[in-house]
Structure formats: structure tokens, C-alpha cells
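Hey L., structure's done. Input below.
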Amino acid sequence: MSWIIALAIGATFAIVSGQMARARNRNVALWTVLGFVTGFLAIIVLAVLGKAETHVAAASADNRTQSEYGRDGILSVRDVSVVFGGIVALNGVSFDMKKGQILGLIGPNGAGKTTLFNCLSRLYQPSKGEILMEGRSILTRQPSQIAETGIGRTFQNVALFPRLSVRDNIRIGGHCRTNSDFVSDSLKLPWVRREERQLNEKVDEILSYLDLHNVADREVAGLPFGTQKRVELGRALAAEPKILLLDEPAGGLNHEEVYVLGDLICRIRDERNITVLLVEHHMGLVMKIADHVVALNFGKKLAEGTPAAVQSDPDVIKAYLGDKHS
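Output:
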């Protein structure tokens, strides 16, 4: 839409300039062209100033909200329920996350873990309840806006572009952090070239961080499953998330790969200052790296606390092993 407005304003300036030149016996063609260019450039300048003002206002709002919410809190799930027809997938689930935590979300199959993830990434709308990110509701956001709020995600089943290279898949993740538009891209304006250069540098850094440089220019479809998992993780990191949602990242990995994955998740938390919410069936991984654990069963919160406390909770043992083991 912005380029249509720019063309319309440019055409208006061109017509006005041409009429004024004709009235004063000036070179009509020259003044028409100058009028068009002036109008076109004017709308670009206004667009740039508007973006700058929007960013300043957003930063100011974020600072106010963060001071109100508290320095440590980052995510709050409050009494969230999801109902599909007559099926209750989540029933009044509540918990809070602090910055820098690795929180493990566990439970048997069908407990509601992925449903909750889909609420956090706005693929599902809760039937009731609230989800706050740094004190601000995310439920008013569209799914396409979630990445820019600071929430990144991987999926149970790898969701990549199979015919694109590893590099391009990761580059796509950084799109939400760019500010260019159709007009700026078409004209290759200086800030567009600067953004492209910065994005390429970010992608190269992530390729090195995840040890993907050797396959950077290969199509994703031909790579082993474990490597594809790292590519998807790289795409999430390119969005510069504050919270990283990992949906069963150890699925399909062998014992050695799971060990490496656990170390990598801890490094991401420590080195990149990213809070991690982890859904995982591999209890050894969760209990080793999580600071806090929330257990779900049949859509309800069953237990919450330290890994040791949740692991020894009678209700959790019953949910996993049955009555005779509780």
C-alpha cells in the first residue's frame, strides 16, 4: 500500500508542477518530472520519520511496562483454558516464568503441552484466561506479530522450507527484525543495504554457533534429521527471541545427540540471555537442565517446582506409571 500512496502523491506533485510551469511558460516536461520526484521522495522521508517515531514510542511503552511488571518476570500464564467442542484440552493452567530460566513443561501424551505452546505462539486462541509477556497481553496480537514481540519457536515436526538452503532458512527467521518496505527495497536505499549486510552477518554468526557452516549452502531436504533440528533452532535464534519455545527438541535424536542438545540449550540461555520453555518427553534431559518444572495431565496442572520435587511428586508418578506405583 505504501508504494501506491507514494506513486499517487508523486503523480499529484507532477500534475501541479506541470500546470504551474505551463502557466509561467516554463519547461513543462522538466517541471513535471521534478514534481514527481519531489513527491515520491517526500513520502519516503515521511515513512522513515514515521517508523522512527513508532520505534521510540514502542521502546518507551516497553520500559514503562517492564517497570510495572518487575525486573525478573517475563511470561505469565493465567488461568488458561482451551476447549475444542466438548474436549477440554487445557483447564485453568497457570504459571510464571522468570528471565533466564529454563522451564520444563512435562506430561504424558495428550496432557496439553503442545496446545499450550500453540496458545503462546497464537496459533490457538484460549477459551478463557490471559497470557502476559513482560506484563503485556499477547492475546491481542496476530500470529504474524508474535516473533517481533520476542517469542521464538521450534516444532515437534521440523517446519522448514525444504528446497531452500540452510542459510536462507535461517535468514527468513531474521525478517521480523528488518524495517524495509517495498519502496525502499525497490530503490535499494542505504538503510536497506545496511540491514541486508547486518542480517547476513547475523546469519553467518548463527551458522558458526550451531556448527552449520559446512552445510550452509545445501538444501535442507537432503540433510539428516538432527541437522534439520539445528537449522530450525537457528531460524528461531535469528529472530532474536527473549523466550525460546522448544517443542520436543530431542525427538528422533540418539543418546549422544541428546547430550549435546542439553549442553547447547544451556549455552543459549547463558550466552545469549534467552529464557527457554521446553516441552520434552526425555525426562533425563528435562531433569538435568531445567531450573523449574511444570507437570500437566489431562489439561490440568498436576505439579510445579524444582525438578527433584516434581519427579518425586505422587501425582506425577501416578500419571506416568499408574496407581500401583504411586
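The beta strands are 73-84, 87-98, 102-106, 128-133, 136-137, 151-153, 243-247, 275-279, 292-297, 300-305. Residues 2-66 form one domain.

-- N.
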